[in-house]
Known about the structure:
- The chain is an alpha+beta fold.
- It has 3 helices and 9 strands.
- The termini are far apart.
- Residues 1-21 have low confidence and may be disordered.
Amino acid sequence: MIMRSLVAALVxxxxxxxxxxxxxxxxxxxxxxxxxxxxxxxxxxxVVAEAxxxxxxxxxxxxxxRRLAGYIFGGNARRRSIAMTAPxxxxxxxxxxxxxxxxxxxxxxxxxxxxxxxPDDPDIRLTVREPARYAVVRFSGLAYPQDVARxxxxxxAFARARGLRAEGAPSLARYDPPWTLWFLRRNEVMIPIGR
Length: 195
């Protein structure tokens, strides 16, 4: 009886870990420093696809994700699929803007503006993000607005304590598919900072 319970628990654990593990590419970065949940990272220039959408954080994230997923799953001039990457980035579309959001996918390594197919959706932009340094805090959960606000405050305090100067608005990075259990989800708040 005890052995069957242990085997059942092991099977459930393996199933859960397999269901949430996805081999998706993440953008490369150079780790500058780490302090617990906090990191400072240098990212190279990255080719991205992005869409600007209105609404509250969750509605905008869903709408923007659907648009960008349509592009990478063949909604483009070549009807070509493009590999999914992580994370999905969400940032205010403009200074102090809470009504519009930019949702962004990083394109796979080796992608260029010349080699990527043109999106069918005219509201999707392909662009190159310049190299940048970010202060980052990692956290788990569903990234409710109050969680994001709390993590943003923690990250801002971390940056101030180390004399790091913010050079833009915080963004939210979500790494996992929606079926991932809440306590296994990886989220990050990222703030661009001066070098």
